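Worked example

This section walks through a single chain of length 86. The input is the sequence exactly as stored; nothing has been trimmed or padded.
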Amino acid sequence: MDKKLLDILCCPVTKQPVKVLSRDKLKTLNARIAEGSVRSYGDEPVRAALTEALVTDNGERIYPVEDGIPIMLQERGISAREAGLK
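Given that input, the structure is written out below as tokens.
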């Protein structure tokens, strides 16, 4: 993820800055996705494993990155608490 892009991105809901989700947490999140137990804020099941994700500074919200593009839409966000990461 481009550092300059990270410096200007923020959560569309909380306005908190975001950072790249650590590999350990991404691995845990993908395990939960494989179990079928992760839903987005739009109440849709997250079916595909993530190769990269961004998380708010407070660690509450996760946003997928697809093909290098951060998907900063409220309904596509994932609750870190619901995903077992907080």
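What to look for: The first helix runs from residue 3 to 8.
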